């Protein structure tokens, strides 16, 4: 079986001591592609370095809404040039986070709009972060894309209404190991009804380790535990889940599989 981790952060300091071992463990676990998702200027630079150092690692360029206040015009222009590299396959993670509001709301919207513009100009899919801001996120997407949009809402944890709207716009949804948490019954119901042709798998490593490893560092190899969970929830074989999600990820991000 081939699997793709469509969202992780191998550039984070959590992996500084054993990054190569983590990458090798992922390969041993059947992870044929890793999409390293940027979230700051520093992260974008490290992501570019990672993609050059491994055939299996691809990247995205973007600034997380937490860091939107640091994204001036010069930074955005620089990142746009970085996004033209052939190993950069998406813009993200970008969006709105009104849960912590580490950057002012108006600045988050401003930066989100700029990255949407880059996404359209370079024809790259969006990796969207939306927390406590789903209605405004969807309104912006509807207004800016007018039906011609592509991308994924990462670490999806919304309700059925949000799921329907996202799918109606042509986006994918990705799920993480938080579906294994003891208190995630509602989220598992969302996984159950999500159409397989629009589902992606991700770890969001180093965050959101599966239930039996909570409190420890997550890593791409643990996508196998997510595969087990989705297989059980959907009542489908692990082979079918792996084949479908890998095909979905390759279709969206053009990962050469």
UniProtKB/TrEMBL annotation:
Lineage top rank: taxon: Bacteria
UniProt xrefs under SUPFAM superfamilies: Metallo-dependent hydrolases (SSF51556)
Full protein name: Hydrolase TatD
Xref: Pfam families: TatD_DNase
Transmembrane segments: none
InterPro entries listed in its UniProt record: DNase_TatD-rel_CS, Metal_Hydrolase, TatD-like, TatD/YcfH-like
Entry's family note: Belongs to the metallo-dependent hydrolases superfamily. TatD-type hydrolase family.
GO molecular-function terms, A-Z: DNA nuclease activity; hydrolase activity, acting on ester bonds; metal ion binding
Span of the signal peptide: none
GO cellular component, one term: cytosol
Binding-site list for a divalent metal cation 2: 129, 154
